[in-house]
Amino acid sequence: MKRYIASLVVFILGCTISGEWVFLLAYWTKNPVANINDMGSVHGSPDERSFLERWNLQGFPKIWLMANLFGFFGYFGIGGWLQWYFYFRRRETPSEWKCQPNRWITPELERHEIKWGSITLVITNFFSAVLSAHVINGGWSMIYYQLDEYGWTWFFLQWPVIFLLQDYAIYWNHRLFHVPFFYKNFHKLHHSYKVPTAYSVTAIHPVECVFFQTLYVLPVFTIPCHWAVYCTLLGYIYYHGILDHSGIRMKSMWPWQPETTFHDNHHQYFHVNFGFNFYLWDVIHGTMRRKDRVYREEIWSQKGLSLAEVSEEVLKEELAERESENRADKAELTDFLKSKLA
Ligand SMILES: [Zn+2]
Ligand SMILES: [Zn+2]
């Protein structure tokens, strides 16, 4: 029971981390009782007003401010809550809850996480607020508001369609950022955290963040999305992103969703397990972690190397890595490697 309440708290806070929650405002302003002009009133010089009006972004400063207030409340709310509940209260018993129980992020790296996590949050909130102001002011999009506007079949079908398409695109985007040029220049920042915590969820390079957000926003302009479906899906994606980075061992709630160790392994072993909400993509494309392969930052194949392709020294380091993990099949993973080393 306690676990479900904890999940609910994280879920609610998780929804607020993305600026897209302001689509809720769009819904209310579409409601006949709401007054769009009120929402769109801008306090500023006539020049400012005409600039925003020219771009059909009336009310943008207010929306951006709210997106940041809620975004940071969520970011520090969840990060702080997980820190307190696990990292502080249960610090003495890491083997009960931690993915890498004997390793802790250094205070410097944690500050680095929070700094970059915050910078990216401000940037994504800016674009979310622009988009939301555009939608609120009646700008063109494929967001719709009446449940049956595109029929009930589409209302139910769009949940898996948007979720799957978006996740698959994000999978390939992630693999692109593991190509040496993109990795070294941009994605390496996110991989500074071999032992991630919840604060690293948005600690990504601004260039990479533009790619990510474009993919997340794409459905708004390409697929008829009911606002509630879109908001819920994005809320869920953020919610799981936070859990995936928390460093805390959690089972998945859904059969398609990998456990949190899946993405924690991505941080520990670098070029492996690229999916987020489905491990299916990694299964199909052969990028899921295998016990007979070795993965590390200098191995760029995205599918690791076979045990025969690496030196004995690397194998020993690999064994130490495996021994530092906390998972049900740990003995299987380490015994397999020991038998090869013997
Ligand atoms: Zn990565
Ligand atoms: Zn990550």
UniProtKB/TrEMBL annotation:
It is found in: Membrane. Keywords: Membrane, Transmembrane, Transmembrane helix. The keyword Membrane applies. Residues 160-287 form the Fatty acid hydroxylase domain. The chain crosses the membrane at residues 7-28, 63-88, 152-171. GO terms for cellular component: membrane. Pfam families: FA_hydroxylase. GO terms for molecular function: iron ion binding; oxidoreductase activity. GO terms for biological process: lipid biosynthetic process. PANTHER family: STEROL DESATURASE. This is Fatty acid hydroxylase domain-containing protein. It comes from Notodromas monacha.
